[in-house]
Amino acid sequence: DYRYIGTIEFPDLYTMNISRLVILLALVATHREVSGKDAPRPHLVFVMVDDFGWYNIGFRNPLIKTPFMDNLATKDGAVLTRHYAFKFCSPTRRSFLSGRQPPHNGMNNAATATIDMRMHTIADKLTGAGYVSHYSGKWHAGHDVVAQIPTSRGFNTSLGYFNGACDHWKQTDLEDGCGLVTDIWDSNKPGFGMNGTYGDYLYVGRAVDTITAHDSSTPLFYYLALQCAHDPMEAPQRFLDLVGTDVPNQVEYAFSAVIDEGVANVTNALKAKGMWDNTLMVVSADNGGPAFSDQHAASNFPLRGGKYQLWEGGIRVSAFVTGGFLPSTMRGTNISFPIHICDWYATFSVLAGADPTDNHEGVPHCIVPCLLQTVSFRFLSLSHMLAARTDSLRRSACSKISCGWCSDDGVLLSWQRRIHGAAPYFPMRVPLCGGATDAGEHVDVA
Questions:
Q1: Per-state percent for the chain, helix, strand, coil, to nearest 5
Q2: Worst-scoring range by mean pLDDT, 216-220, 262-266, 379-383, 386-390?
Q3: Contacts of 410 (CB under 8 A, 6+ apart)
Q4: Which side of the chain, N or C, has fewer Cβ within a 10 Å radius?
Q5: Contact, 202 vs 195, CB < 8 A?
Q6: What local confidence, expressed as pLDDT, does residue 335 receive?
Q7: Residue 103, class by beta-carbon neighbours within 10 Å (0-12 exposed, 13-18 middle, 19+ buried)?
Q8: Within the chain, what is the greatest distance between any pair of CA atoms?
């Protein structure tokens, strides 16, 4: 299989002191040697699902009706069981788009949140490498000036709303403080006359139309940022009827069915176009479901906490990878190695033949990740900080990890709290919980 990249063994992740850029170049060279220089680059599709709870997909919750995604994840793909994001929306989206962890690209979730203009987005990278890049759905990554909107950040076309939330049917803005204005933008102009249709019908519909019209000989990057399952709690009647009333929350469960149909429509469009066999698709929530907030629109069972919290339920998100580009040996598997959403920036860049670095004077550097050739996943780039998370944390690790933050008694803080910047703001001892045997984070092992 030309998509297989050979395994590299690293004897000690903690003390590894080899240039990650050299590793990247070596792996790309290996890939080209095996596949041939003219081998087609994969089409790349990233589906960001808003406020999607860990327990809101059918292969975890038998009451949820998501048959298409269940099959796509557990039979035709690989479930990412430790895929991490930020605890709420905008920092996660900017992390994915910029390749930087949230502390280096802002943890603001307001309407003014934006990606530093000096940074190149993943769309900039891929478009510069010859891809055609499109986006539809929720942006929430800057719109104060035209230079911050999607078509100014590398996307050839876009359709979506700028803020963090809007009415699903009317597209009226709920966050900008400007009253009931309509928040929908079509590439370089307002989407006059487009409001009044259910949001994800619009955004999935644009994705399907774009794929159908695409020249499949040119590599495609599509970023689909679904509006479901964010509040307001509004779902089309046919999905409410599908899930019925004998469920804990009818709209919550209907949201999952809307998402399932959207992913199905995009997948089927790729198959109809003959592109699926050379597509790598990632489906991921942007944060844990809002199980403990004013939204009450999700469940993260058995994880502790939810959106707005740094417990696993807030940042360990439901995700899977699929597509014909994924080696057949990986399909139907679980990948348990820790992954952060910013890792896709370099992963996609490498697969596209683009430079994965993005360093500029005065700007926090994009981490130059290595393609760690784990037994389970042969394409995923992982930043140097991921190596710090193990299920049996040791005090000695603090002296070995130059980037790690330690509590004042020398115990290594949990991976998610270091990633998301909690340690500098909490000088007191922070509980260290979690691991493979304590998903609910009930036991402090520090």
A1: 30, 15, 55
A2: 386-390
A3: 395, 398
A4: N
A5: no
A6: 87
A7: middle
A8: 61
Q: How far apart are CA 155 and CA 130, in angstroms?
A: 12
Nearest C-alpha neighbor of 284 from the set 2, 75, 46: 46
- Structure confidence at residue 431 (pLDDT): 60
CB 46 within 8 A of CB 351: no
What does the chain come to in residues? 446
- Rg of the chain's alpha carbons, rounded to an integer? 21
Whole-angstrom distance, CA of residue 398 vs CA of residue 404 = 7
Placement of tokens 């003219």 in the chain: 38
Residues 6 or more apart in contact with residue 90 via CB below 8 angstroms: 106, 108, 109, 110, 113, 140, 141, 164
Could you give the 3-state DSSP secondary structure of residue 80? strand
Structure tokens at 142: 């800057």
Specify whether 140 is catalytic: yes
Active-site annotation holder among 31, 43, 89, 143 = 89
Who contacts 189 (Cβ-Cβ below 8 Å, separation ≥6)?
Answer: none
Alpha-helical (H) ranges within 273-394 are 312-315, 343-352
Packing angle, helices 250-272 and 199-213, rounded to 10: 10
Between 174-178, 193-197, 224-228, 359-363, the lowest mean confidence (pLDDT) is in 359-363
Q: Which residue has the higher pLDDT, 298 or 261?
A: 261
Number of H-type helices and E-type strands within the chain: 10, 13
Which member of 43, 83, 104, 140 is catalytic? Answer: 140
